[in-house]
Amino acid sequence: MMLGKKQLLINGEWRDASTGKTMPVVNPATEDVIAEVANASTEDVDAAVASARAAFDGPWSQISARERGRLLWKLGERLMEQADEVARLETLHNGKPIFESRQIEIPMSAECLQYFAGWADKVHGETVPVKGNALVYTRREPLGVVAAIVPWNFPLMLAVWKVAPALAMGNTVVLKPASQTPLTALALGQMALDVGFPPGVLNVITGGGATCGQAIVEHPGIDKIAFTGDTSTGKGIMRSAAETIKHVTLELGGKSPNIVFADADLEAAVRGATVGIFYGKGEVCAAGSRLLIEASIKDRFLEKVAARTKKMSVGDPMDPKTRFGALSSKTHFERVLGYVETAKREGATLLAGGARADIGTGKGYFMQPTVFGNVTVDMTIAREEIFGPVLAAIEFADVEDAIAKANNSIYGLAAGVWTKDVKKAHYVASKLKAGTVWVNTYNVYDTAMSFGGYKQSGFGREMGMHALDYYTQLKSVWVDLG
Ligand code: NAD
After folding, report:
1. Does the beta carbon of 213 sit less than 6 angstroms from any atom of ligand 1?
2. Inter-residue contact 29 to 95 (CB < 8 Å)
3. Minimum-distance ligand 1 atom for the alpha carbon of 237
4. Which end of the chain has fewer CB atoms at under 10 Å, N or C?
5. What is the best residue among 153, 158, 219, 331 to mutate for testing ligand 1's pocket, by most ligand atoms within 8 Å of CB?
6. If you average pLDDT over residues 29-53, what whole number do you get?
7. Count of domains observed in the chain
8. How far is the CA of 106 from the centre of ligand 1 (A)?
9. Which pTM value belongs to this model?
10. Mean local confidence (pLDDT), 271-286
């Protein structure tokens, strides 16, 4: 199926890249090219930034906070009206099951738009008692032009996590989706126009990371970069953004520990261990990719995890019954399979999966959900983010050993703790160096709850009221009454 040629959305108009260049979009489940999108040049980035700046200084600043909220609310409504179509696009370019796109990602994105719609007119300054006779107050002002740069794993949702608070607080946006998954961000741009956002408030440009992305990061007309992606890309972005002292928030990689104590509800923990790693094909930044198991239950527990994993079937992402789809791209698929070989070479024991999966078409980047036992903390699969369906099981001796092993990572995005002991649960939660700790559950999110990293998983928070701090700046006004 060919979806045709897609253009850039700049200043409310759809246009080709200035160079006329395009990039193919591939369906990872069939390996077919499904669309051609514009490959934005530096000139296109300039035009998008100029349009966002003009909208920020002009029409967008004239619109009341309540009206901004109303527009965001309508955008959420429009997204749900078009949910079937948008979910189909999300599955086509990403390979995730249509069940996940339609029932989880799209509704969560709409909810996020409407959650931040509610905040638009509820963030304000304060009056402050100072010495002398003065009226002193603060104003919460928008930052200006925000660039949102997003990865390919939750292409629409991770865009909305940035676009919604940015627009709610009165900023304008240049959105750049990942080159593999540009279709739903472009659809969001059209929906924003349809519901009445003024031209230039939300611009969507597609292009390569090293070219278009880098041009955005270096652009002096951008006030803030909101980035989700790889830790190494994040480091480069921070360096480049330093030149013009841009605000930066980074949501980066993870190697999250999912800790199972012997006193846990083991059936629930088995489900939590598999959902923790295999939801979203393991292409989830917070995936519980390190399963830490208390030594006394290790063998019994791993047997159950392996058995449950072997029962999971990989299928056509467009089939509503499928729960495990195709990995997102050829390069990524090969990289993940490379980690399987490394794990075997380094002495880990393969307990389930470990190979390409075939759904009967002989095509597509399908991989079996994979579990490795006997993993030690120095092994590559215990240290590096694989970002795929590969679970590394490591044993621990006691509570302190579990905490030490869990924190033995450059990352600190999320963690899970499974125990029936309330004291132990809270103690371990307090000791884990992670932005989110789930107790007796895993991979649950709500737009009202902030999410973000510790350590090299980044800084800043998305979702929840704390996200708003990263899209405003504080002005202090002194009025002499003396
Ligand atoms: P990536 O860093 O390769 O790409 C992310 C985005 O950055 C893409 O839009 C890409 O085009 C762009 N980009 C690449 N190089 C750039 C540059 N030099 N300047 C500006 N932009 C550039 O990451 P990916 O492979 O698309 O995504 C996977 C990564 O994202 C994983 O590490 C994962 O853990 C992380 N992730 C983190 C979170 C979180 O919330 N912490 C959520 C999802 C994914």
Report:
1. yes
2. yes
3. 19
4. C
5. 153
6. 98
7. 2
8. 20
9. 0.97
10. 98
Q: What angle do CA 110, 111, 116 make, to 5 degrees?
A: 105
The verdict on 191 and 294 lying in the same domain is no
**Mean pLDDT across the stretch 5-16?**
98
- Which of 136, 164, 137 is closest to 148 using CA atoms? 164
Known catalytic residue at 212: no
Average pLDDT, the chain: 98
Same domain, 470 and 418: no
427 CB burial (10 A radius; 0-12, 13-18, 19+): middle
State the Cα torsion 87-92-96-99 to the nearest 10°: 40
Asked whether the predicted pLDDT for residue 111 surpasses 70, the reply is yes
User: Does 472 share its domain with 377?
Assistant: no
For the CA of 233, the closest atom of ligand 1 is 2
Residue 1 confidence (pLDDT) above 90: no
Q: What's the whole-number mean pLDDT along residues 214-235?
A: 98
- Read off the pLDDT band of 2 (50, 70, 90): confident
The amino acid sitting at 22 is T
Q: Which of 149, 183, 217, 243 to mutate to test the pocket of ligand 1 (most atoms within 8 A of CB)?
A: 149
Q: Same structural domain for residues 193 and 321?
A: no
